[in-house]
Amino acid sequence: MGPGSPIAPYLERWNQLPRSRQMALLGIAAVSIVAIYMVFMSSTSPNLVVAYSGLAPEDSAAIADHLESSGVPYEIGAGGSTVSVPANQVAEVRIELAQQNLPAGGSVGMELFDETDFGATDFTNQVNYQRALEGELARSINTLDGVRASRVHLVLPKDSLFVEDHEDASASVLLQLDRSTDLTQDQVQGIVHLVSNSVEGLTQEHVTVIDDSGRAIYDGAALAGAFGTTGTTTQLALQRDYERQLQRDIESTLAQVVGVGRSAVTVRALMDFDEVTETQNSFDTTPVERSSTTVTETFQGNNTTVTGVPGTDGNDNTAADNAGTGDSTWSREETTVNNEISQTTSTTVRAPGGLERLSVSVVLDESVTAAQEAAIASAVAASVGFDQVRGDTLSVTRIPFDESVREAFVVPAGDGLDQYLSYLKLVLPILAIVLAFVLVMLLLRSLSRRQLSFPAIAPPRVLSEMQMMPALANAQVPMPELEPTADPHATRVLALADQNPRAVADVVQTWMREEN
Asked: C-alpha 43: how far from its chain's center?
């Protein structure tokens, strides 16, 4: 690049800078370029937000195809389970996809029957109906909190002409739960009710619900034969739920009293799962008349008195002559009373799951005072329904706690990466402007310190007016050659001196008088 190039002076000044300053300026320039590029890309690219999450691969593929054909920018993330679209088009995209029955939840529903197939057989229609019913149930279950995805398998037996050949319908539900989510018994029971009431002929005892780890969280068959040999798992689950509930209640109360991490609670409950039927008969000592019968007999009329000796001697006429006659009256009354004792029969069926004995252990940190310990023991006993006659035990002790245990209760703050990125996106334009301003200022400062020095003009000698006048009047006196300079003011002064030397001399004399 020749010396006459317009950027030659800048290159020369750049070469005069120290190496460290050159590296610093290059670094600032690189950072500024990257920041400006990121700001430009963030301003030109659409702001994508998640429109759908937890999608099945089939739904993600169908949604991507529809958005591709519609020309809507999108982004698939989280292993294909989320679809992001521009923030200003979320509502429009959801409405448009809803018209296409998307997302379908990874399964088909009653839309299978939107188009009539006249060539379908009865078997095909039955299979499609079962598929549609399974898909509709899965979609309904997926709307519940804590459920990421679900699958429903139904067994719908054929209708039979004979009752003895009839088979009951059954259902199995597989749940994929969110992380650190555990459904409550009420939620599980709600899913069972939903499935059993949606399928004709399906009862709760033929419904099974399992989670994605293979753990059975509801077994209708075990509950139907509840508390027998097949109900051992259910019995333990009920017992553990009762113990955990009491433990959570005590821990939440102690956390407000002594602070988080300063108490530990253990609850053990012994429950009776025997189903008992009791029949009791009670009798009243006061008799109750059930019935009463009265018989009355009366006789009135002539009466012949028979006399004589029995036997052959009675045939003697003499004896017959001695017989007499007369009137007689006879009456009899008999009353029969039937009494019954009042009897009361009561039948009591005791439901299984009664509490037989309860054991509670509370360990407090040594920072808790003795007075607090006594008050806490009384409060815990009242909260769990402590019954000494039943054989319940309650233990409250104080020991030093390990500090690491208390630190484990402190909830770590989230990294907040998304929030930091949003803040960074707002700061980037300001940072780019500041870096550009700093870069320009450093360049100007470096260039001002290393400007090319102009040759200094020698001060004029002090001459008398008589000595200067002939010299200035003589036009043949050669002027001293000045080095070329890029200063326009110096050029104008030299040109003025060549054109009017006397005026320049007058000006110089005036300056000299003012200095004296």
From this structure: 33
pLDDT at 465 over 50: no
Q: What six digits make up the tokens of 162?
A: 């004979």
145 Cα distance to chain centroid: 7
What stretches of 135-196 adopt beta strand conformation (E)?
147-155, 170-177
pTM of the entire structure? 0.40
Q: How far apart are CA 359 and CA 348, in angstroms?
A: 29
Alpha helices in 209-316 (DSSP H): 220-224, 232-258
CB 472 within 8 A of CB 502: yes
Q: Which residues pair with 174 in a beta bridge?
A: 151, 210
Q: Give 489's DSSP letter.
A: H
Which long-range contacts link 318-324 to residues 24+ away (Cβ below 8 Å)? none
CB-CB contact of 220 with 235 (8 Å):
no
Pairwise CA distance, residues 125 & 175, whole Å: 27
Phi and psi at residue 269, in whole multiples of 5°? -125, 135
Both tokens assigned to 426: 């707002």
d(CA 428, CA 435): 10
pLDDT digits (tens, 9 = 90+) for 393-434: 999 999 888 766 555 555 444 445 556 666 666 777 777 777
- Three-state DSSP at 494 gives helix
